[in-house]
């Protein structure tokens, strides 16, 4: 984690595997729940409740990063001078591209 900000290192110290939240959400949204998926969902949910210790300082860091990213996207759209409406996916991909 060299080269990462102190806030990000602190967040990852309190939130072990962010992918577990995404997988839990996918399992909940899937329309067909088998017994094996239910067991995996319960295991991930218990792990999340037991091991994730995100506090106000971590929340502030996440909020600050989201505001920064929103402003960056808004500036990119304003400076591009495009008149057509971009989809969220197009804006998201352009905001992460390194070609400006």
Please specify the SSE layout and strand pairing.
Blueprint lengths: L5 H9 L3 H12 L5 H17 L4 H25 L7 H9 L4
Helix pairs in contact: 2-3, 4-5
3D architecture notes:
With 100 residues, the protein is mainly alpha-helical. The chain is 72% helix and 0% strand. It contains 5 helices and no strands. Helix 2 runs antiparallel to helix 3. The longest helix is centred in the last third of the chain and has 25 residues, at 56-80. The model has no long low-confidence stretch (mean pLDDT 80).
Provide a brief overview of the structure.
The protein is mostly helical and 100 residues long.
The first-to-last residue Cα distance is 27 Å
Q: Low-confidence parts, pLDDT < 50 over ≥5 residues?
A: none
Q: How big a fraction of the residues is strand?
A: under 5%
Mean pLDDT: 80
Could you tell me the number of beta strands?
0
Shape: flat
């Amino acid at each position: 984690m060299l080269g990462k900000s102190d806030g990000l290192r602190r967040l990852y110290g309190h939130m072990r595997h962010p992918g577990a939240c995404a997988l839990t959400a996918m399992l909940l949204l899937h329309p067909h729940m088998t017994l094996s998926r239910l067991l995996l969902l319960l295991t991930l949910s218990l792990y999340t409740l037991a091991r994730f210790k995100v506090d106000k300082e971590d929340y502030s860091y996440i909020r600050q990063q989201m505001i920064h990213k929103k402003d960056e996207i808004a500036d990119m759209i304003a400076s591009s001078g495009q008149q057509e409406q971009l989809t969220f996916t197009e804006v998201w991909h352009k905001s992460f591209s390194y070609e400006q």
